[in-house]
Design a protein that fits this description.
The strands form four sheets. This protein has a seven-stranded mixed β-sheet, sandwiched between helices. The chain has a four-stranded antiparallel β-sheet with strand order 11-12-15-14. The chain has a two-stranded antiparallel ribbon with strand order 1-3. A hairpin with a 3-residue loop joins β14 and β15 (354-358). The protein has two domains: 4-30 and 285-390, Alpha-Beta Complex (Aspartate Aminotransferase, domain 1); 56-281, Aspartate Aminotransferase, domain 2, CATH 3.40.640. It has 397 residues and is of the alpha/beta class. It has helices at 4-8, 30-47, 51-54, 60-71, 85-99, 114-127, 141-144, 167-176, 196-199, 268-278, 286-307, 333-342, 366-381, and strands spanning 11-12, 18-19, 28-29, 79-81, 105-109, 132-136, 149-155, 180-184, 203-206, 221-224, 312-313, 325-329, 345-346, 348-350, 354-358. Bound molecules: pyridoxal-5'-phosphate and (2S)-2-amino-4-(2-amino-3-hydroxyphenyl)-4-oxobutanoic acid (3DJ). The site of pyridoxal-5'-phosphate has 12 residues, from α5 and α6. Catalyzes the cleavage of L-kynurenine (L-Kyn) and L-3-hydroxykynurenine (L-3OHKyn) into anthranilic acid (AA) and 3-hydroxyanthranilic acid (3-OHAA), respectively.
């Protein structure tokens, strides 16, 4: 069994805070502070430009991509770091559409994170070849897969409700209909076991500032299935994805394998933080993380339903069918979350009415769950949310 007391000590969480928002931004890994200080002083400070080779900065995106790959069932050489998740969504979708010409539909669902849908809309507008973004309810996705679909683009775990799609079954259905798949793992990577090879996913993307604790604005990752590695065309054809960046040719030629998904200069300092953050996963079993996350979420649901009858569960009770988060609905959700935050229980609010809590076994345990439920109970029983300072100011027009 993974020693979660050990992993908890690897994170800097302010005394007295119950941090249930690691599904949005993970806490600071203690080791990152020293690692970055050393990197700044010894690598940038001493090597300057020589650091690209001497300190391994040029290979960092690939090396750390492989570290992330281990957590999502991706073999070496199929995952690379860089840019933001929105950019990686664009890149993956563009490459997938290019591999499946002659079809018109990008299929997604209303549980997808808006940025993914916005990037698809922007890309489709630029391509101008009659493509259409079709957005259906999450439960209707399987039935909407037909021979018009070029690409099925989904986020595995719904950011609001935590609902988990069956990646393997939907990918198989998409392939049977002749479609390719792009999976967004923003709320999956580090939250639950992911098996990209086993699921047969074509492309996957994700961020590293949530369950992977890489810090605000940490770089995203992109995965390309081995069968597409030499044929996927990077629409964002920056110089570092070129076959020979330092030949400075005037024409683009895609680099070998996953390197072609690089765009421009990597964020070396941010990657250094992420590298330190990923050390926390050494000796951690993702099966233990999953089992503990399900148990913590189950406990939170049971305690909150017992103590706060006015809150309506927005997440499935079936632990196998959700990610690592729990949401409740209430018309005063915003004020309730402000009252929680004022009492050092940190979750977040997602419009129109959801209060959302992430459970991250690396640093959250039963005591936190019980503590948060007790504070929530007081807020609900004593209507502590009903104070002017917890309500949104009226919009100024
Ligand atoms: C599923 C999903 N996709 C995309 C994004 C956008 O990522 P970024 O702001 O890093 O581009 C987020 C989070 O913000 C997300 O949760
Ligand atoms: N990336 C974020 C940011 O830069 C600011 C505030 C929030 C975020 C988030 O990651 C939001 C997150 N994707 C969500 O699930 O709501």
């Amino acid at each position: 069994m993974t020693d979660f007391a050990r992993t908890r000590a690897l994170f800097d969480i302010p005394e007295g805070m119950i941090y249930l928002d690691g599904n949005s931004l993970g806490p600071l890994p203690v080791a990152a502070k020293e690692r970055v200080a050393t990197m700044l002083a010894d690598e940038w400070g001493k090597h300057l430009i020589k650091g690209w080779n001497a300190a391994g900065w040029m290979n960092q995106s690939r090396r750390i991509g492989d570290r992330v790959g281990k957590l999502i069932g991706a073999p070496e050489g199929t995952t690379i770091m860089g840019d933001t998740l929105s950019i990686k969504v664009y890149q993956a979708l563009a490459a997938a559409l290019d591999l499946n010409p002659g079809r018109q539909v990008v299929l997604s669902d209303s549980g997808n994170f808006p940025s993914d849908l916005y990037m698809a809309q922007g890309l489709i507008g630029s391509l101008g070849r009659g493509l259409e973004l079709k957005v259906v309810e999450p439960e209707a996705v399987a039935d909407a897969i037909d021979e018009t679909v070029a690409v099925l683009m989904l986020t595995e775990v719904d950011y609001r409700t935590g609902r988990l799609h069956d990646m393997k079954a939907l990918t198989a259905k998409a392939h049977a209909a002749g479609a390719l798949t792009v999976w967004d793992l923003a709320h999956s990577a580090g939250a639950l076991p992911v098996d990209l090879i086993g699921a047969g996913a074509d492309f996957a993307v994700g961020c590293t500032y949530k369950y992977l604790n890489g810090g605000p604005g940490a770089p995203a990752f992109i995965y390309v299935a081995p069968k597409h590695l030499e044929t996927a065309r990077p629409a964002l054809s920056g110089w570092l994805g070129h076959e020979a960046p330092f030949a400075f040719d005037l024409d683009y030629r895609a680099g070998a394998g996953i390197d072609r998904m690089r765009v421009g200069t990597p964020p070396v300092i941010a990657l250094t933080v992420l590298d330190a953050a990923l050390d926390a996963w050494e000796g951690v079993s993702m099966a233990d993380v999953r089992a503990t996350s399900i148990a913590l979420c189950d406990l939170f649901i049971a305690e909150v339903e017992k103590r706060c009858p006015d809150l309506v569960l927005a997440t499935t009770r079936d632990g196998e069918r959700r990610g690592s988060q729990v949401s409740f609905r209430h018309p005063q959700g915003y004020a309730i979350m402000q009252a929680l935050i004022a009492r050092n229980v940190i979750g977040d609010f997602r419009a129109p009415d959801a209060i959302r809590f992430g459970f991250t076994p690396l640093y959250i345990g039963e005591k936190d769950v019980l503590g948060a439920a007790a504070i929530l109970e007081t807020i609900m029983k004593d209507r502590l949310w009903d104070r002017p300072e917890y309500h949104r100011k009226a919009a100024v027009t």
